[in-house]
């Protein structure tokens, strides 16, 4: 049984593991509140600043904090809302409908990478600040020669007395300047060719907002989209941090690969949510335009070619949304879903590029200008097929699960 709200495109199924259905009344309220916030606070800012590559304003960042969006998944004992991946993705989808960068910004809160390796004292000190949006992080893993091959990290950290000295280059570090800390993955043990993922450690490097850490230089990467914040190439040259900066200390040292990979299912669900939000925004704008734009004496929305495009777009979005709901439910109930998380990330991102492109086509020449948001949705949708693991990496995960790993890779 399925019920749909035509205004928000919201749907849910009855599920034996969730007697009330995926979309409970509380979740419906969270989704509607996030949509209202997006249409009022996020979309106007995006329409103004994205065309000129402006940054997300601090005022909007504070409003996100006031809504509790940086602490959705943080337990109540640490000042968060104590909700799950489902609610996190509901909010992210709505925020992405306005500006994907804002939907991505809330991921800079909602927990700490490597939290499992931290002491209770560290969690008590850090998580409440994260939940309030006062201590947000950037993530620095990729390097010029370490992208999909995340184990190929060569940036190194060497102990010198009571400090670690970090040296090496990093790539694709978004928010490095305006974050309160950067989580950096560096090699603390020599690389074992047979176990390259071993010997990597995570370091939390605290710094002032608007600056890079001492001993670190950065160059802004000129992107074609994902505006609202800067993405950096970083060069660490003798960056010194205290021994306490190593996540997990001696106990957690060398285990950064596992610290990072432990959150991949949620990260991929979050990317699916952002993809769906972009597609939903493009669909809604295309519907409105098709009802207003007239050619040959009538609105183009009366032509079968346009109507069928919109029907297919809406169907693809809803299919992705339902798969996302299932994956979020699996995550929140503690069930393994690495294959399904890869599936939803693959399906939703591929769908998003396709749907936003169709929406731009409905706009015609008007879509190929910065006068309409549909070009932003299209540009940003293209990125969802790359970050958090490319579409090809997701297909590798899925095929390995179904067929087993090949004898040689």
Which segments are poorly predicted (pLDDT under 50) over 5 or more consecutive residues? 1-19
CATH architecture annotation name of the largest domain:
Up-down Bundle
CATH secondary-structure class of the largest domain = Mainly Alpha
Distance between the termini: 44 Å
Beta-strand content bin: 15-25%
- What's the gyration radius in Å? 22 Å
Quaternary state reads single chain
One letter per element, helices H and strands E, the order comes to EEHHHHHEEEEEEEHHHEEHHHH
> Total number of β-strand segments?
11
| Count, helices | 12
CATH third-tier fold name of the largest domain = Butyryl-CoA Dehydrogenase, subunit A, domain 3
Structure description:
The chain is of the alpha+beta class and 409 residues long. It folds into 3 domains: 2-131, Acyl-CoA dehydrogenase/oxidase, N-terminal domain (Butyryl-Coa Dehydrogenase, subunit A, domain 1); 137-256, Beta Barrel (Butyryl-CoA Dehydrogenase, subunit A, domain 2); 264-403, Butyryl-CoA Dehydrogenase, subunit A, domain 3 (Up-down Bundle), CATH 1.20.140. 45% of the residues lie in helices and 16% in strands. The protein is built from 12 helices and 11 strands. The strands form 4 sheets. The chain has a 4-stranded antiparallel β-sheet with strand order 4-5-9-8, with no helix packed on it. A 3-stranded mixed β-sheet has the order 3-6-7. A two-stranded antiparallel ribbon has the order 1-2. Helix 3 packs parallel to helix 8 (264-292), helix 9 runs antiparallel to helix 10 (338-363) and helix 10 runs antiparallel to helix 12. The chain is globular, with a radius of gyration of 22 Å. The termini are far apart. The model is unreliable at 1-19 (pLDDT under 50).
